[in-house]
Amino acid sequence: MEYRASEKIPTTLIPGDGIGPEVVEATVKVLDALGAPFAWDIQQAGMAGIECGGDPLPDATLDSIRRTGLALKGPLTTPVGGGFRSVNVRLREAFNLYANVRPARTLVPGRFEDIDLVLVRENVGGFYVAHDYYIPVGDDPHAVAVSTGTNTRDACRRIARFAFEYAVRNGRKKITVVHKANILKALTGIFLDAAREVAKDYADRVIMDDRIVDACAMQLVLNPWQFDMLLCTNLFGDILSDQIAGLVGGLGMAPGANIGEHAAIFEAVHGSAPDIAGKGIANPISLMLAAGLMLEHVGRQDMALRLRQAIEQTLNVDQVKTGDLKGTASTLHFADAVAKRIALSR
Ligand code: NAI
Ligand code: MG
């Protein structure tokens, strides 16, 4: 999609559940300070959608994203076990958001220095499709549990090509394909095969290697600097993206972009954090950085850079931090501090 510099861009804004409305408010505040070009269309989803009209994914929300092709989304609560199917997964399916991009970069000194990783996750297939059911035996309706995943060769090629193109565009040198092709020989073997095939087209520009997921998890802790980009199937990408968030200070520091041909939805990697919801203490950096990815997506690299620098200065010069980073700032106090830094950068 092309965006003209002078025009406001219609963008769907979903406050979401739990800490969602808090980190969304903080993020909108810093986007306003930047003069970001988004014209918000506020829509509900998740538990908030149920409270508004009885539907976790209202038609009005789908229509809005269909119209805008662009959304910034707070986390949505998904019931564990029974209840409705994940709205996040449904949104990725509805708009065929096949690529999930999750960068992890050190912003504050912590256990690991100088982390700069990008995880690309296949976003619509694998075990996450969750063809998941019970088989009753005798009087036990849940005697046997079955789950099947699906990966198509086309979808594997598509996400591999996306990752290699991303690498070329962003000056990345190496892609590590993460799989379990020794055990899930078909489901993740097809993923590895497709990546090897696509890698041939980029052989002179990007190195490809691969790791079995369990070994990769260990090596991410022992020596994360050996990795540049990780290309993962859906479930492994879900797990390892929380792990790489841990390398840079936790879930408060981890943005994500869900990208398709006709739409893109930007969000934090974290969920609705019910344990701290309503207290005004959540770290809004993940969603702010996701908004930064959205600015880059619409061609405003300049604003994305100013936003990132303002966050870094707030953390490291002003020493304003939320509790998860051992600070004392509230969500909105942190946002105000970032907005102040943005005003100074003009
Ligand atoms: P979670 O990511 O919400 O929270 C895990 C832990 O990290 C909690 O202790 C929480 O307080 C902390 N945390 C998360 N974000 C934080 C932030 N910004 N600042 C400070 N601390 C933060 O994961 P959990 O508890 O497993 O899931 C809660 C709900 O969120 C579930 O219903 C789950 O399905 C949903 N979820 C939604 C996602 C989405 O909308 N994309 C992604 C992940 C989970
Ligand atoms: Mg997750």
Describe the structure.
Keywords: Oxidoreductase. GO terms for molecular function: isocitrate dehydrogenase (NAD+) activity; isocitrate dehydrogenase (NADP+) activity; magnesium ion binding; NAD binding. This is Isocitrate dehydrogenase [NADP]. InterPro entries: IsoCit/isopropylmalate_DH_CS (IPR019818), IsoPropMal-DH-like_dom (IPR024084). It comes from Cupriavidus basilensis. The chain is α/β, with parallel strands linked by helices. It has two domains: 1-95 and 262-346, Isopropylmalate Dehydrogenase; 123-248, Isopropylmalate Dehydrogenase, CATH 3.40.718.10. It is 39% helix and 23% strand. It is built from eleven helices and twelve strands. It has helices spanning 20-34, 47-53, 59-68, 87-94, 153-169, 189-199, 213-222, 234-247, 285-297, 301-316, 331-344, and strands at residues 9-14, 38-42, 70-73, 99-105, 116-122, 126-137, 140-150, 174-179, 207-212, 229-232, 255-259, 264-268. It has a ten-stranded mixed beta sheet with strand order 2-1-3-12-11-4-5-10-8-9, with helices on both faces. The mean pLDDT is 95. It binds 1,4-dihydronicotinamide adenine dinucleotide and magnesium ion. Residues 238, 242 line the site of magnesium ion.
